[in-house]
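DM from R.C. (forwarded with permission)

"hey, sorry to bug you on a friday — could you get me a structure for this? deadline for the figure draft is monday and I only need the backbone to look sensible"
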Amino acid sequence: MRFSTWTALVALSIVSSSSANYNLTDDYTGNAFFNGFDFFHDKDPTNGFVKYVSMDDANSTKLAGYVPSPFSASRVAGNGSSSQNPNLVFLGVDATTNNPPAPGRQSTRVTSTKTYNKGLFIFDIQHAPTGCGVWPAAWLLADTSKYTWPAGGEIDIMEQVNAATTNQMTLHTSQGCNLSNNTSSSQKPFSGTTLATDCQGNMGCGISDNTPGNFGPAFNAAGGGIYAMEWTSQAIKVWFFGRNDTQIPSDLASTSSQPNPSQWGTPKAAWTSDACNIDDHFKDMQIIFNTALCGDWAGQQQIWQQDATCAAKASSCQAYVAGNGDEFSEAYWAIRSVRVYQAV
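My reply, with the result:
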């Protein structure tokens, strides 16, 4: 697939230590990104007030493309061009229209053309969508042409809704996969907080991370950070390193061709094979970046009312998203790189 480019948008058991050696197999950096991803433009599966646009529409409306690094939200919202090299991937939301017709405000969702069975996935994100009514996610989902959700599995690496400022990582599976009972122990294999232990269905088995700056405005103000997910038969693990973190591993900071997760310390989240047969529950997965609006999570009236910041702005998620187009200038992804490694 070819995507026309332009410069600045007027809008880029207890887990044992990892021991695999990894080689880079897929590098979706800069101009290579849209050659490896398709635009999803069907009805939103999560019932949001959102219209996902096609590649052609995203390009013509400047909801997707390439932007220079570094850049600011004010530059995205302005107009003109830049002489800098376009090397960030931009995926945005319509930030001008008020009261868009059904099915809702225009947004973007892209899916990798390649499917994966295990691997090390490294997402270097400079800016992630924020704001009331927004439901952004960077995740993996089983190929929907082969599986009916939740069969085949879902791995949510970076996800939250509305004004939340801390990341939530979650697995969704068919029956029979759980978060290990060892998670209440001082020897638990991750540093995050358990939200639920049964991975089946909509709730999933989530783990929250209260590390400052891992989501929301603080994440963006710091220049983002790196999320890494390792998927093996033994475990699925997620790490986060902020842009200014003094503990960023050298093999991540240097985009090493052979990263070594065994040297990265305790992950923020880990689901182990002692409570879930990972090979049975996770298969043929694709990488997805999207920004939903309202929908089954962000749009729940109870969730909206529990968020004091957002509830003060409108009576419901849909009312807010429909009537406040200029509030979505921060609802965009700026992606430095997506790299996938396989064990050798």
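R.C.: lifesaver. The longest helix spans residues 317-323.
me: no worries. Residues 15 and 189 are 6 Å apart (CA to CA).
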